[in-house]
């Protein structure tokens, strides 16, 4: 079984490498600051910055809109044994500024330079991660597998310290190949097993104040969300993959793309291309 998994991963890497080679030279020129993000993703699989440092237009509005959506989530009862509540598509579509921020051309350029082939923008989720509760699902170590390379931009809506449920990852050079990792359930790995493969000193929690922005490739690195101790963690998760994903069934849109395009005639061709996805 592990030999088959290893062989499949090698085949995927070779195929994706050919696509990236064929698309070489098509990514936009980046500023030094944006190139640093791409370099960080290539080197470690993650890069932590802030909305203020990014300076993307509309960043203040997504914090305000995120507050409004999570305030509604805070009114909902938490089902037994659940630890996360996510906004529905209709909630997001009432705040087009949230969706539109992820289509900023600078962000698309960063993602395109890292992924290396044409980019698809899926949209975002707005999450309320409840403090306490079980060590389960995404609170366990895992890697995503929707594509060979993806980018998620995680924006913190509240201050997130060591006890605030920070996103945590293993850098690329410390992430073990998945075929070596004993699986507990689905693709999840226990703390004890991960500590055997990578010491705790290698684990990287991404802490920061409200407005922290974490760029990460969750398909390349093992990661998890720590359990918050005293207060819910509130976040925006922006999601991108290639237009030729390995598992397109897990790369569906998180909002009605056609309706959004019709309502925003000023979108550029690059922005429309990131939304016109045929897989």
Keywords:
279 residues, alpha+beta, Jelly Rolls, 6-stranded antiparallel beta sheet, 3-stranded antiparallel beta sheet, 9 strands, 18% strand, globular
Helix and strand arrangement:
Elements (H helix, E strand, L loop, with lengths): L1 H21 L9 H13 L1 E5 H4 L4 H15 L10 E3 L2 H5 L2 H6 L3 H11 L3 E11 L20 E7 L10 E3 L21 H7 L6 E3 L5 E5 L6 E3 L7 E10 L14 H7 L5 H7 L4
Antiparallel strand pairs: 1-7, 2-3, 3-9, 4-7, 4-9, 5-6, 5-8
Helix pairs in contact: 2-7
Written description of the protein model:
With 279 residues, this protein is α+β, with helices and mostly antiparallel strands. It has one domain: Sandwich (Jelly Rolls), CATH 2.60.120.620. It is built from 10 helices and 9 strands. It has helices spanning 2-22, 32-44, 51-54, 59-73, 89-93, 96-101, 105-115, 191-197, 257-263, 269-275; strands at 46-50, 84-86, 119-129, 150-156, 167-169, 204-206, 212-216, 223-225, 233-242. The strands form 2 sheets. The protein has a 6-stranded antiparallel sheet. A 3-stranded antiparallel sheet has the order 6-5-8, with no helix packed on it. The model has no long low-confidence stretch (mean pLDDT 91).
């Amino acid at each position: 079984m592990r030999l088959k998994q290893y062989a499949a991963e090698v085949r995927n890497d070779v195929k994706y490498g050919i696509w990236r080679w064929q698309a070489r030279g098509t990514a936009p020129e980046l500023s030094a600051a944006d190139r640093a993000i791409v370099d960080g993703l290539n080197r470690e699989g993650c890069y932590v910055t802030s909305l203020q440092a990014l300076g993307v237009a509309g960043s203040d509005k997504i914090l305000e809109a995120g507050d409004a959506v999570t305030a509604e989530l805070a009114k909902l009862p938490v089902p037994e044994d659940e630890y996360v509540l996510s906004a529905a598509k209709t909630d997001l579509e009432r705040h087009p500024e949230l969706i539109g921020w992820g289509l900023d051309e600078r962000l698309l350029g960063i993602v395109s330079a890292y992924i290396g082939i044409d980019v698809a923008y899926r949209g975002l989720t707005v999450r309320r991660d409840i403090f306490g509760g079980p060590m389960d699902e995404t609170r366990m170590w895992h890697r995503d597998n929707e594509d060979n390379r993806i980018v998620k931009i995680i924006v913190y809506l509240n201050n997130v310290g060591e006890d605030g449920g920070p996103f945590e990852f293993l850098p690329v050079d410390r992430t073990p190949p998945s075929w070596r990792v004993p699986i507990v359930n689905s693709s999840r790995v226990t703390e004890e097993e991960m500590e055997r493969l990578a010491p705790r000193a290698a684990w990287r929690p991404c802490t920061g104040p409200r407005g922290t922005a974490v760029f990460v490739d969750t398909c390349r690195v093992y990661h998890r969300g720590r359990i918050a101790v005293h207060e819910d963690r509130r976040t925006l998760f922006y999601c991108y993959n290639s237009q030729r994903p390995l598992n397109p069934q897990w790369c569906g849109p998180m909002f009605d793309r056609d309706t959004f395009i019709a309502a925003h005639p000023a979108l550029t061709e690059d922005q429309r291309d990131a939304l016109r996805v045929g897989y």
